């Protein structure tokens, strides 16, 4: 799928369809939409007057141009109310539009730079949002289907009459492509069934991506983990025939500076272990490495965008399986940091592998830690699938993460980390236990992680409510969402002091 930019008048653009736009309540369109309306002999204004076109967000109207224009079809895309119009609305509209065009079997389309004209938003951010929205909205996971059912939209050209805006539009397309491709790479990894995406395969994919993008990579096995004393990770891996992997990716853009660390939970399948999960929907646990996948994918985008900062990406990857070798409830594990954890519930495995991931990040001198994990079912009880949860030990770092999420158009909500919550995970036999039961389940999980962040600024993102969706909407498609890849990338860009896109 190509996204391009061309200067000229959209009315004379030759493609399967041209796409113009309309705010709700506008009765006589101006700009590019006005020019096309004129060429169609006033068809758009007539349809507005008849109440058939209302400019509502998500409304697409196809008009056949019957030889009045080079393009056989004109699509009028509703932009919604002009109040509150935003980059994020352009992103979602572009996702819906791309699927609409594909459904109509349109192969090539010309679009106005939605938002950059009458909308008054920066051209670069508009082009970024159009590109992200299009590439994210068209995503499909078909590699295990014998035949591909969908038609293809092959090319989208932003047609801009003001030639001075072209360089900004080009930059926006480039950034949008990198962000969307990284998100789609994350989706590919998270959608991949666990019999294909084993920990070993996850390591291979990370390594291959690192080679392509110029990242350094180190993929470690169980012998190395034992030397490091990673009893949390090895304790979870104990029940599996698949070897665990500890994936490390390094991006060096900041000279000798200490790195920022991104750490992702990489459970390639979570049965729950001996505390086994019910059969219903267990298959969804193939996506329990979505946090790790977002870290790997974000590292790839960072390598392509080249911010002036050092970043280390860390993914402890393993299955969580029951077997004669599996860790039992009641067992005590000794982590890399030396702190011990009583395993109350083998299904609370994510925090065990992250404990060692965080310890390793600190050993590597990380100055800030951001971990990402499908950690608790409780977070989707709290926030539904609307926002992911954030918990941490450092207010300024939390603010930076929130600002990055804002730039990405991904919603985040902070939960409290009062010390009282630690009481719930005090253990009689070890330094702490891995489950505090049902109350404040997402927070008690984070309280355990906090013990391993120690005095390093740290933010934990619990994405278990937003990592997969059942229905498509805007940039969201069925299956893995790729959230929070774009937040992570924006966070690193902002950490390097580079301008990030606005909301
Ligand atoms: N991977 C799950 C969390 C999860 C649940 C992700 C649903 C996505 C959808 C995690 O490992 C888990 O099982 N957590 C337990 C913790 C409990 C045993 C303390 C949970 O949330 O029930
Ligand atoms: Mn689990
Ligand atoms: Zn899990």
Secondary structure blueprint with pairings:
Blueprint: E1 2-7, E2 17-23, H1 31-39, H2 43-49, E3 60-64, E4 73-80, H3 87-103, E5 108-111, H4 123-137, E6 155-160, H5 166-191, H6 199-213, E7 216-220, H7 222-228, H8 231-237, E8 245-252, E9 260-264, E10 266-270, H9 290-305, E11 310-320, E12 332-334, E13 340-342, H10 350-363, E14 368-373, H11 378-383, E15 388-392, H12 395-408, E16 412-414, E17 432-433, H13 441-453, E18 458-462, E19 468-469, E20 479-480, H14 485-495
Parallel strand pairs: 1-6, 2-4, 2-5, 5-6, 9-11, 9-14, 10-11, 13-17, 14-18, 15-16
Antiparallel strand pairs: 3-4, 7-8, 8-11, 12-13, 15-18, 19-20
The structure holds ligand BES, manganese (II) ion and zinc ion (ZN).
Written overview of the protein:
- The chain has 503 residues and is of the alpha/beta class.
- The protein has two domains: 2-160, Leucine Aminopeptidase, subunit E, domain 1 (3-Layer(aba) Sandwich); 180-495, 3-Layer(aba) Sandwich (Aminopeptidase).
- It has helices spanning 31-39, 43-49, 87-103, 123-137, 166-191, 199-213, 222-228, 231-237, 290-305, 350-363, 378-383, 395-408, 441-453, 485-495, and strands at residues 2-7, 17-23, 60-64, 73-80, 108-111, 155-160, 216-220, 245-252, 260-264, 266-270, 310-320, 332-334, 340-342, 368-373, 388-392, 412-414, 432-433, 458-462, 468-469, 479-480.
- The strands form four sheets. Strands 7, 8, 9, 10, 11, 14, 15, 16 and 18 form a nine-stranded mixed sheet that branches. It has a six-stranded mixed sheet with strand order 1-6-5-2-4-3, sandwiched between helices.
- The longest helix is centred in the middle third of the chain and has 26 residues, at 166-191.
- The two termini are 25 Å apart.
- The model has no long low-confidence stretch (mean pLDDT 97).
- Bound molecules: ligand BES, manganese (II) ion and zinc ion.
């Amino acid at each position: 799928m190509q996204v391009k930019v061309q200067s000229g008048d959209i009315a004379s653009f030759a493609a399967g369809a041209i796409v113009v736009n309309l705010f709700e309540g506008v009765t006589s369109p101006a700009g590019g939409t006005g020019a096309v309306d004129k060429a169609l002999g006033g068809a758009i204004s007539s349809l507005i007057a008849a109440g058939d076109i209302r400019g509502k967000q998500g409304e697409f109207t196809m008009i056949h141009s019957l030889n009045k224009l080079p393009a056989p079809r004109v699509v009028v895309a509703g932009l919604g109310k002009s109040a509150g119009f935003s980059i994020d609305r352009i992103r979602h509209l572009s996702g819906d539009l791309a699927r609409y065009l594909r459904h109509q079997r349109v192969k090539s389309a010309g679009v106005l730079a939605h938002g950059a004209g009458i909308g008054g938003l920066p051209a670069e951010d508009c082009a970024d949002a159009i590109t992200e929205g299009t590439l994210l909205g068209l995503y499909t996971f078909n590699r295990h289907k014998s035949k591909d059912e969908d038609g293809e939209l092959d090319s989208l050209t932003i047609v801009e009459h003001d030639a001075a805006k072209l360089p900004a539009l080009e930059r926006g397309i480039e950034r949008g492509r990198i962000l969307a491709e990284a998100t789609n790479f994350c989706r590919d990894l998270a959608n991949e069934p666990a019999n294909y995406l084993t920990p070993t395969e996850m390591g291979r994919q990370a390594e291959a991506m690192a080679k392509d993008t110029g990242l350094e990579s180190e993929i470690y096995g169980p012998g190395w983990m034992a030397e490091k004393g990673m009893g949390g990770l090895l304790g979870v891996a104990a029940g599996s025939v698949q070897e665990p992997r500890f994936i490390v990716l390094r991006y060096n853009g900041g000279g000798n500076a200490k790195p920022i660390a991104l750490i992702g939970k990489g459970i390639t399948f979570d049965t729950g272990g001996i505390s086994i999960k019910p059969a219903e929907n267990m298959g969804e646990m193939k996506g329990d490495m979505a946090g790790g996948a977002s870290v790997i994918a974000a590292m790839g985008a960072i390598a392509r965008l080249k911010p002036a900062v050092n970043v280390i990406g860390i993914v402890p990857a393993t299955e969580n399986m029951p077997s004669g070798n599996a860790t039992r409830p009641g067992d005590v594990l000794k982590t890399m940091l030396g702190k011990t954890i009583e395993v109350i519930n083998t299904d609370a495995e994510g925090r065990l592998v992250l404990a060692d991931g965080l310890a390793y990040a600190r050993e590597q001198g990380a100055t800030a830690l951001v971990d990402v994990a499908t950690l608790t079912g409780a977070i989707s009880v709290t926030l539904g699938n609307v926002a992911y949860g954030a918990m941490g030990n450092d207010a300024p770092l939390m603010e930076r993460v929130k600002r990055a999420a804002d730039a990405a158009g991904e919603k985040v909500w902070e939960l409290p980390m009062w010390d009282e919550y630690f009481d719930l995970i005090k253990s009689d036999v070890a330094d702490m236990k891995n489950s505090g039961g049902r109350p404040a389940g997402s927070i008690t999980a984070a309280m355990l992680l906090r013990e391993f962040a120690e005095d390093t600024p740290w933010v934990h993102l619990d994405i278990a409510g937003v990592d997969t969706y059942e229905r498509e909407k805007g940039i969201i498609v069925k299956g893995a969402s790729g959230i929070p890849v774009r937040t992570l990338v924006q966070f690193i860009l902002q950490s390097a002091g580079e301008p990030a896109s606005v909301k």
